[in-house]
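go over my protein:
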Amino acid sequence: MIDSDFFGYAKQILLSELATICDFRLVSGGDFVVKNLATLKQATDDELSFFVNRKYLNDLKTTKAGAVIIDERDIANLPNGVIGLVSGNVMVGLARAINLLFAEEQFSPHISHLARIHENVLIGSGCHIGDFTLLGEGAELGNNVVIGSNCVIEKKCKIGDNCHIGNNVTVSHAIIGYSTTINSGARIGEAGFGFIPTESEVVRVKQLGRVLIGNNVRVGANSTIDRGSISDTVIGDGTVIDNLVQIGHNVTIGKRCIIVAQVGIAGSSKIGDNVVLAGQVGVAGHLEIGDGAVVASKSGVASSCEPGSVLGGIPAVDIDVWRRQVSFLKTAVTKKKPLNEA
């Protein structure tokens, strides 16, 4: 169930109105006031549910939900009396419904008396700044910026309108666009891993670049984005970075990329637009990954790849080649020897 203590109560709205706003096609007629959202098993006749994974087909056939967001092909599996909301993409439809039913948490304009703010910081209208947060000399916040508790925004950093910075975040040497979210524990602008070993010592290379984060970017909890060494580390508009991701110095990531948890991208690599790096992918340094490429989870990218490539394995190769490699190895190690070879 959705706990109202954490997420508030769902907006009460007629199903027909919800369908219009979210671009659903109503099947089976009828109308009611939607009271909440629930799973197929838990939903009651005044609640909305959804069906995506065919593993739960039996739950769909027996659900008591008032309405279900479904694909066209599953209309026949709806129980009698349950209304279908047909969507071309069920997950997108569900996301729209959730955004409509459950508003984002609102933060009233407030600057905690426990925050420490340098005298020449510029703060826009409607900002919310939590307890024990530090804003360094010359920092600039746009309008309606939310900064949680225990954050450090270091000198000269700029954060655009409508950004949301979670708790325990540090930002240094960075310029951030508008409507970007940085979740709790993230570290933006720390020094990259610049060291040169010699026979007698390991020489540190001072990191003199910045981090430039675009608009509508999301950075997950406890992720790190290192500042550049001389040029900048750049994150493009609309890119989504999951939790526990490491992005090295001078990396450039294009627009609308999806970087899943525990990905590591080594310094100076260039990631194009609309790239997907699945969980635990490792990308070596100074590579280029073309627009629209997809890399399967746990893969190691050791060489540059063309736009639209789909890769997997260590080292990453064309996904069909990787599948054949896996199949061959499985067969090779499990195949029984003939009796005359025993």
